[in-house]
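Dear Dr. H.,

I hope your travels went smoothly. While you were away I took the liberty of generating a structure for the chain from your last submission, since the lab meeting agenda had it listed for discussion. I wanted you to have the full record in hand beforehand rather than looking at slides cold. The sequence, exactly as received, is reproduced here:
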Amino acid sequence: MEKKNPRLVEAKVSWEIGEEPINAVITAAVYSVERKPGTWQNMINALHRGAEKTEEGTVNAFLFRAMVDRLLEEYRALDT
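The corresponding predicted structure, in token form, is as follows:
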């Protein structure tokens, strides 16, 4: 039986992360730090502050960029 080479196609990219993953990220971040009054609001403020620093100015862009940066970090570690 002849083995066929896999066919590569470009995946459709969605820049929208969605509410559930965003809420999960905020929750995980809050539970990763010492919780005290105002931690939830401060985490949300930090998220929006990061969003404002993106070219698009959105939470989606901020989290998407963070995921890409983390993936690239792991990818570069493969070469070491």
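Two observations you may find useful: The chain has a mean pLDDT of 89. The helical segments are 19-31, 39-52, 59-77.

With kind regards,
E. W.
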